[in-house]
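Hi, here's the filled form for the chain we discussed.

Project: internal
Contact: R.S.
Residues: 378
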Amino acid sequence: MGDFLPYGRQSINEEDIAAVTEVLRGDWLTTGPAVSRFEADLEELTEGGGAVAVTSGTAALHVAYAAAGIGAGDEVVTSPMTFVATASTAALLGAKVVFADVEPETGNLDPAAARAAVTERTRVVAAVDYAGHPAELDELRTVAGSSGALLLEDAAHSIGGSWRGRPVGSLADLTTFSFFATKNLTTAEGGAVVTRSADLLRRARQFRNHGLVRDRTDQRYPDEGGWHQEVHAFGLNYRLPDVLCALGSAQLRKLAAFKRRREQLHARYDKGLADVAEVRTPVTREGADVMWHLYALRVLDGQRGPLYDHLRALGIGVQVNYIPVYWHPVFEDLGYRRGLCPNAERFYAQQLSLPLFPELTDAEADRVVDAVRSFFGY
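And the returned structure, exactly as it came back:
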Protein backbone atom coordinates (compact mmCIF):
# COMPACT_ATOMS: atom_id res chain seq x y z
CA MET A 1 0.00 0.00 0.00
CA GLY A 2 2.95 2.34 0.52
CA ASP A 3 2.27 5.46 2.56
CA PHE A 4 -1.15 6.16 1.05
CA LEU A 5 -4.08 4.84 3.05
CA PRO A 6 -7.19 4.17 0.94
CA TYR A 7 -10.56 4.56 2.63
CA GLY A 8 -11.43 0.97 1.68
CA ARG A 9 -9.59 -2.05 0.34
CA GLN A 10 -10.27 -5.68 -0.51
CA SER A 11 -9.03 -8.46 1.82
CA ILE A 12 -7.73 -11.36 -0.29
CA ASN A 13 -5.66 -14.29 0.98
CA GLU A 14 -4.38 -17.62 -0.33
CA GLU A 15 -7.68 -19.37 0.44
CA ASP A 16 -9.46 -16.97 -1.92
CA ILE A 17 -6.85 -17.46 -4.63
CA ALA A 18 -7.09 -21.26 -4.31
CA ALA A 19 -10.89 -21.15 -4.61
CA VAL A 20 -10.68 -19.16 -7.84
CA THR A 21 -7.89 -21.35 -9.23
CA GLU A 22 -9.92 -24.49 -8.59
CA VAL A 23 -12.74 -23.13 -10.75
CA LEU A 24 -10.34 -22.07 -13.51
CA ARG A 25 -9.01 -25.64 -13.66
CA GLY A 26 -12.50 -27.14 -13.77
CA ASP A 27 -15.22 -27.49 -16.38
CA TRP A 28 -17.35 -24.46 -15.47
CA LEU A 29 -16.48 -20.80 -15.71
CA THR A 30 -20.05 -19.54 -15.44
CA THR A 31 -23.58 -20.72 -14.58
CA GLY A 32 -22.24 -23.78 -12.79
CA PRO A 33 -21.90 -25.34 -9.33
CA ALA A 34 -19.98 -22.47 -7.73
CA VAL A 35 -22.95 -20.18 -8.39
CA SER A 36 -25.34 -22.60 -6.69
CA ARG A 37 -22.95 -23.01 -3.77
CA PHE A 38 -22.54 -19.25 -3.28
CA GLU A 39 -26.30 -18.72 -3.40
CA ALA A 40 -26.75 -21.52 -0.84
CA ASP A 41 -24.13 -19.88 1.38
CA LEU A 42 -26.02 -16.59 1.20
CA GLU A 43 -29.29 -18.37 1.99
CA GLU A 44 -27.70 -19.88 5.11
CA LEU A 45 -26.33 -16.50 6.23
CA THR A 46 -29.73 -14.85 5.82
CA GLU A 47 -31.58 -17.75 7.46
CA GLY A 48 -33.58 -19.12 4.58
CA GLY A 49 -34.15 -16.45 2.00
CA GLY A 50 -33.68 -17.55 -1.61
CA ALA A 51 -30.62 -15.88 -3.16
CA VAL A 52 -29.93 -14.73 -6.72
CA ALA A 53 -26.29 -13.88 -7.48
CA VAL A 54 -25.83 -11.05 -9.99
CA THR A 55 -23.05 -8.98 -11.53
CA SER A 56 -23.11 -5.96 -9.17
CA GLY A 57 -24.98 -4.23 -6.40
CA THR A 58 -26.53 -2.01 -9.05
CA ALA A 59 -27.70 -5.09 -10.95
CA ALA A 60 -29.16 -6.42 -7.70
CA LEU A 61 -31.26 -3.27 -7.30
CA HIS A 62 -32.39 -3.40 -10.93
CA VAL A 63 -33.34 -7.08 -10.58
CA ALA A 64 -35.16 -6.45 -7.30
CA TYR A 65 -37.23 -3.58 -8.67
CA ALA A 66 -38.01 -5.61 -11.79
CA ALA A 67 -39.09 -8.57 -9.65
CA ALA A 68 -41.36 -6.18 -7.74
CA GLY A 69 -43.00 -5.25 -11.04
CA ILE A 70 -41.94 -1.61 -10.98
CA GLY A 71 -42.98 0.31 -14.09
CA ALA A 72 -44.29 3.59 -15.43
CA GLY A 73 -46.61 5.39 -13.01
CA ASP A 74 -45.28 3.59 -9.93
CA GLU A 75 -43.53 5.40 -7.09
CA VAL A 76 -40.49 4.28 -5.10
CA VAL A 77 -39.83 6.02 -1.78
CA THR A 78 -36.18 6.02 -0.80
CA SER A 79 -33.35 7.88 0.93
CA PRO A 80 -31.17 10.45 -0.84
CA MET A 81 -28.20 9.52 1.39
CA THR A 82 -26.96 6.69 -0.83
CA PHE A 83 -25.16 5.94 -4.05
CA VAL A 84 -27.18 7.00 -7.09
CA ALA A 85 -27.97 3.39 -8.11
CA THR A 86 -30.57 2.98 -5.36
CA ALA A 87 -32.71 5.51 -7.22
CA SER A 88 -31.50 5.29 -10.82
CA THR A 89 -32.38 1.62 -11.24
CA ALA A 90 -35.99 2.37 -10.27
CA ALA A 91 -36.08 5.39 -12.58
CA LEU A 92 -34.77 3.27 -15.48
CA LEU A 93 -37.84 1.05 -15.07
CA GLY A 94 -40.10 4.09 -15.38
CA ALA A 95 -40.81 4.75 -11.72
CA LYS A 96 -41.06 8.15 -10.08
CA VAL A 97 -38.50 8.31 -7.27
CA VAL A 98 -39.78 10.04 -4.14
CA PHE A 99 -37.01 11.08 -1.76
CA ALA A 100 -37.79 11.10 1.95
CA ASP A 101 -35.47 12.65 4.52
CA VAL A 102 -33.07 10.80 6.81
CA GLU A 103 -32.54 10.62 10.54
CA PRO A 104 -30.00 13.28 11.56
CA GLU A 105 -27.97 10.82 13.64
CA THR A 106 -27.67 7.71 11.46
CA GLY A 107 -28.25 8.98 7.93
CA ASN A 108 -30.86 6.23 7.49
CA LEU A 109 -34.34 6.72 6.05
CA ASP A 110 -36.59 8.36 8.66
CA PRO A 111 -39.77 6.26 9.08
CA ALA A 112 -41.84 9.39 9.75
CA ALA A 113 -40.58 11.04 6.56
CA ALA A 114 -41.22 7.84 4.61
CA ARG A 115 -44.76 7.67 6.01
CA ALA A 116 -45.42 11.21 4.82
CA ALA A 117 -44.07 10.35 1.35
CA VAL A 118 -46.06 7.19 0.54
CA THR A 119 -49.17 7.39 -1.63
CA GLU A 120 -51.51 4.89 -3.24
CA ARG A 121 -48.98 4.74 -6.12
CA THR A 122 -46.08 3.65 -3.90
CA ARG A 123 -44.95 0.15 -4.90
CA VAL A 124 -41.64 -0.06 -2.99
CA VAL A 125 -40.15 1.61 0.07
CA ALA A 126 -36.38 1.24 -0.31
CA ALA A 127 -34.37 1.67 2.88
CA VAL A 128 -30.57 1.97 2.85
CA ASP A 129 -28.36 0.63 5.64
CA TYR A 130 -26.08 3.64 5.66
CA ALA A 131 -22.45 2.87 6.63
CA GLY A 132 -23.60 -0.62 7.69
CA HIS A 133 -26.08 0.44 10.37
CA PRO A 134 -29.44 -1.28 9.72
CA ALA A 135 -32.34 1.01 9.01
CA GLU A 136 -35.45 1.06 11.24
CA LEU A 137 -36.81 -1.93 9.36
CA ASP A 138 -39.73 -2.81 11.64
CA GLU A 139 -41.24 0.65 11.41
CA LEU A 140 -40.49 0.90 7.70
CA ARG A 141 -42.24 -2.41 7.07
CA THR A 142 -45.35 -0.95 8.69
CA VAL A 143 -44.99 2.17 6.55
CA ALA A 144 -44.67 0.10 3.37
CA GLY A 145 -47.59 -2.11 4.36
CA SER A 146 -49.82 0.91 4.89
CA SER A 147 -49.84 1.50 1.12
CA GLY A 148 -49.56 -2.13 0.04
CA ALA A 149 -45.94 -1.59 -0.97
CA LEU A 150 -42.98 -3.94 -0.68
CA LEU A 151 -40.06 -3.15 1.63
CA LEU A 152 -36.64 -3.29 -0.01
CA GLU A 153 -33.46 -3.19 2.07
CA ASP A 154 -30.44 -1.86 0.18
CA ALA A 155 -27.89 -3.73 2.28
CA ALA A 156 -24.85 -2.91 0.13
CA HIS A 157 -23.07 -1.85 3.33
CA SER A 158 -24.45 -4.24 5.92
CA ILE A 159 -24.12 -7.95 5.07
CA GLY A 160 -23.19 -9.78 8.27
CA GLY A 161 -25.02 -7.36 10.54
CA SER A 162 -28.35 -7.81 12.32
CA TRP A 163 -31.29 -5.78 13.61
CA ARG A 164 -33.02 -6.76 16.86
CA GLY A 165 -31.59 -10.27 16.67
CA ARG A 166 -32.47 -10.97 13.03
CA PRO A 167 -29.78 -11.07 10.33
CA VAL A 168 -29.68 -8.54 7.53
CA GLY A 169 -31.31 -10.27 4.58
CA SER A 170 -34.17 -11.74 6.61
CA LEU A 171 -36.07 -8.56 7.42
CA ALA A 172 -37.37 -7.08 4.15
CA ASP A 173 -39.40 -8.42 1.24
CA LEU A 174 -36.34 -7.92 -0.95
CA THR A 175 -32.74 -7.38 0.17
CA THR A 176 -29.90 -6.37 -2.13
CA PHE A 177 -26.18 -6.85 -1.49
CA SER A 178 -23.05 -5.47 -3.15
CA PHE A 179 -19.74 -7.32 -3.33
CA PHE A 180 -17.60 -4.56 -4.85
CA ALA A 181 -13.92 -4.57 -3.86
CA THR A 182 -14.31 -2.11 -0.97
CA LYS A 183 -17.41 -3.77 0.52
CA ASN A 184 -17.52 -6.08 3.56
CA LEU A 185 -16.81 -9.08 1.34
CA THR A 186 -15.94 -9.08 -2.34
CA THR A 187 -16.41 -10.99 -5.56
CA ALA A 188 -14.48 -8.19 -7.37
CA GLU A 189 -17.74 -6.99 -8.92
CA GLY A 190 -20.96 -8.65 -7.89
CA GLY A 191 -24.14 -8.53 -5.88
CA ALA A 192 -27.17 -10.55 -4.87
CA VAL A 193 -30.90 -10.35 -4.26
CA VAL A 194 -32.40 -12.25 -1.33
CA THR A 195 -36.12 -12.84 -0.78
CA ARG A 196 -38.41 -15.24 1.06
CA SER A 197 -41.11 -14.90 -1.59
CA ALA A 198 -41.17 -17.76 -4.12
CA ASP A 199 -42.79 -15.49 -6.70
CA LEU A 200 -40.28 -12.66 -6.27
CA LEU A 201 -37.44 -15.20 -6.39
CA ARG A 202 -38.72 -16.70 -9.64
CA ARG A 203 -39.11 -13.26 -11.23
CA ALA A 204 -35.64 -12.19 -10.06
CA ARG A 205 -34.02 -15.31 -11.50
CA GLN A 206 -35.75 -14.81 -14.82
CA PHE A 207 -34.81 -11.14 -15.10
CA ARG A 208 -31.18 -12.00 -14.31
CA ASN A 209 -31.16 -14.44 -17.26
CA HIS A 210 -32.74 -12.48 -20.13
CA GLY A 211 -36.25 -13.38 -18.95
CA LEU A 212 -35.84 -16.89 -20.37
CA VAL A 213 -38.54 -19.45 -19.56
CA ARG A 214 -37.24 -23.01 -19.85
CA ASP A 215 -39.83 -24.91 -17.81
CA ARG A 216 -42.19 -26.52 -20.34
CA THR A 217 -45.15 -26.18 -17.98
CA ASP A 218 -44.77 -22.39 -18.14
CA GLN A 219 -44.11 -22.08 -21.86
CA ARG A 220 -46.65 -20.85 -24.41
CA TYR A 221 -45.38 -23.26 -27.09
CA PRO A 222 -44.00 -26.21 -25.08
CA ASP A 223 -44.02 -28.73 -27.96
CA GLU A 224 -41.48 -26.92 -30.10
CA GLY A 225 -38.63 -29.22 -29.04
CA GLY A 226 -36.20 -30.02 -26.27
CA TRP A 227 -34.09 -26.99 -27.16
CA HIS A 228 -36.98 -24.56 -26.81
CA GLN A 229 -36.87 -21.50 -24.55
CA GLU A 230 -39.09 -18.43 -24.48
CA VAL A 231 -38.97 -14.85 -23.26
CA HIS A 232 -42.27 -13.68 -21.74
CA ALA A 233 -40.92 -10.45 -20.23
CA PHE A 234 -37.69 -8.66 -21.03
CA GLY A 235 -34.69 -9.29 -18.82
CA LEU A 236 -30.92 -8.79 -18.96
CA ASN A 237 -27.78 -10.87 -18.59
CA TYR A 238 -26.83 -10.20 -14.98
CA ARG A 239 -25.33 -13.65 -14.30
CA LEU A 240 -22.37 -13.73 -11.89
CA PRO A 241 -19.81 -16.31 -13.13
CA ASP A 242 -18.57 -19.33 -11.20
CA VAL A 243 -15.07 -17.93 -10.88
CA LEU A 244 -16.38 -14.92 -8.92
CA CYS A 245 -18.94 -16.93 -6.94
CA ALA A 246 -16.10 -19.20 -5.75
CA LEU A 247 -14.34 -16.10 -4.45
CA GLY A 248 -17.58 -15.07 -2.75
CA SER A 249 -17.97 -18.37 -0.90
CA ALA A 250 -14.36 -18.18 0.29
CA GLN A 251 -14.92 -14.61 1.47
CA LEU A 252 -18.10 -15.54 3.34
CA ARG A 253 -16.10 -17.95 5.50
CA LYS A 254 -14.12 -14.96 6.79
CA LEU A 255 -17.06 -12.58 7.21
CA ALA A 256 -17.21 -12.94 11.00
CA ALA A 257 -13.48 -12.15 11.28
CA PHE A 258 -13.90 -9.15 8.98
CA LYS A 259 -16.74 -7.93 11.18
CA ARG A 260 -14.69 -8.24 14.38
CA ARG A 261 -11.78 -6.29 12.91
CA ARG A 262 -14.02 -3.55 11.56
CA GLU A 263 -15.63 -3.24 15.01
CA GLN A 264 -12.19 -2.95 16.65
CA LEU A 265 -11.08 -0.21 14.28
CA HIS A 266 -14.41 1.61 14.59
CA ALA A 267 -14.05 1.58 18.39
CA ARG A 268 -10.45 2.79 18.12
CA TYR A 269 -11.57 5.79 16.07
CA ASP A 270 -14.40 6.46 18.54
CA LYS A 271 -11.98 6.49 21.46
CA GLY A 272 -9.32 8.54 19.70
CA LEU A 273 -11.76 11.25 18.61
CA ALA A 274 -14.13 11.29 21.59
CA ASP A 275 -12.80 14.56 23.02
CA VAL A 276 -12.54 16.44 19.71
CA ALA A 277 -15.34 19.00 20.02
CA GLU A 278 -15.30 19.85 16.32
CA VAL A 279 -16.46 16.39 15.20
CA ARG A 280 -19.20 13.88 15.97
CA THR A 281 -18.53 10.14 15.94
CA PRO A 282 -21.15 7.67 14.61
CA VAL A 283 -24.05 6.49 16.77
CA THR A 284 -25.39 2.96 17.23
CA ARG A 285 -29.09 2.42 17.83
CA GLU A 286 -30.24 -0.05 20.47
CA GLY A 287 -30.89 -3.39 18.78
CA ALA A 288 -28.34 -2.87 16.01
CA ASP A 289 -25.43 -5.30 15.65
CA VAL A 290 -23.55 -3.33 13.02
CA MET A 291 -21.23 -4.56 10.30
CA TRP A 292 -19.38 -1.28 9.90
CA HIS A 293 -18.64 -0.63 6.24
CA LEU A 294 -17.80 3.07 6.66
CA TYR A 295 -16.53 5.16 9.53
CA ALA A 296 -18.72 8.19 8.87
CA LEU A 297 -17.24 11.06 10.85
CA ARG A 298 -19.32 14.25 11.10
CA VAL A 299 -17.22 17.43 10.85
CA LEU A 300 -18.90 20.56 12.21
CA ASP A 301 -18.79 24.28 11.41
CA GLY A 302 -17.99 24.01 7.72
CA GLN A 303 -14.64 22.34 8.32
CA ARG A 304 -15.31 19.14 6.32
CA GLY A 305 -13.76 20.46 3.10
CA PRO A 306 -10.57 21.81 4.71
CA LEU A 307 -10.14 18.62 6.75
CA TYR A 308 -10.63 16.51 3.61
CA ASP A 309 -7.90 18.47 1.82
CA HIS A 310 -5.61 18.30 4.87
CA LEU A 311 -5.90 14.51 5.23
CA ARG A 312 -5.54 13.88 1.50
CA ALA A 313 -2.35 15.97 1.47
CA LEU A 314 -1.03 13.67 4.21
CA GLY A 315 -1.74 10.57 2.09
CA ILE A 316 -4.89 9.58 3.95
CA GLY A 317 -7.57 8.57 1.46
CA VAL A 318 -10.70 9.93 3.08
CA GLN A 319 -13.91 10.03 1.05
CA VAL A 320 -17.36 11.65 1.16
CA ASN A 321 -20.39 9.32 1.09
CA TYR A 322 -22.67 10.59 -0.46
CA ILE A 323 -23.79 13.61 -2.41
CA PRO A 324 -27.62 13.66 -1.99
CA VAL A 325 -28.92 11.69 -4.97
CA TYR A 326 -31.27 14.39 -6.22
CA TRP A 327 -28.34 16.84 -6.49
CA HIS A 328 -27.07 14.89 -9.50
CA PRO A 329 -27.86 16.78 -12.72
CA VAL A 330 -29.84 13.83 -14.09
CA PHE A 331 -32.37 14.30 -11.26
CA GLU A 332 -32.11 18.08 -11.34
CA ASP A 333 -33.12 17.87 -15.01
CA LEU A 334 -36.21 15.90 -13.92
CA GLY A 335 -37.29 18.76 -11.67
CA TYR A 336 -35.80 17.82 -8.29
CA ARG A 337 -34.44 20.78 -6.33
CA ARG A 338 -31.95 21.30 -3.52
CA GLY A 339 -33.54 21.81 -0.14
CA LEU A 340 -35.85 18.81 -0.55
CA CYS A 341 -34.36 16.83 2.37
CA PRO A 342 -32.66 19.22 4.84
CA ASN A 343 -31.35 16.52 7.19
CA ALA A 344 -29.71 14.65 4.32
CA GLU A 345 -28.13 17.84 2.98
CA ARG A 346 -26.81 18.76 6.43
CA PHE A 347 -25.49 15.21 6.89
CA TYR A 348 -23.72 15.39 3.53
CA ALA A 349 -22.15 18.76 4.37
CA GLN A 350 -20.56 17.26 7.48
CA GLN A 351 -19.78 13.67 6.39
CA LEU A 352 -16.24 12.33 5.97
CA SER A 353 -15.37 8.61 5.67
CA LEU A 354 -12.13 7.64 7.38
CA PRO A 355 -10.13 4.60 6.18
CA LEU A 356 -11.77 1.37 7.34
CA PHE A 357 -10.86 -2.15 6.16
CA PRO A 358 -9.72 -5.33 7.93
CA GLU A 359 -6.02 -5.05 7.02
CA LEU A 360 -5.78 -1.52 8.42
CA THR A 361 -3.35 -1.73 11.35
CA ASP A 362 -3.81 -0.10 14.73
CA ALA A 363 -0.81 2.12 13.95
CA GLU A 364 -2.39 3.24 10.68
CA ALA A 365 -5.68 4.00 12.43
CA ASP A 366 -3.77 5.99 15.03
CA ARG A 367 -2.06 7.91 12.23
CA VAL A 368 -5.50 8.92 10.97
CA VAL A 369 -6.65 9.92 14.46
CA ASP A 370 -3.50 11.97 15.06
CA ALA A 371 -3.94 13.75 11.73
CA VAL A 372 -7.56 14.70 12.56
CA ARG A 373 -6.61 15.82 16.05
CA SER A 374 -3.67 17.92 14.85
CA PHE A 375 -5.87 19.68 12.28
CA PHE A 376 -8.04 20.94 15.13
CA GLY A 377 -5.05 21.78 17.35
CA TYR A 378 -5.25 18.84 19.78
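Let me know if anything looks off before we file it.
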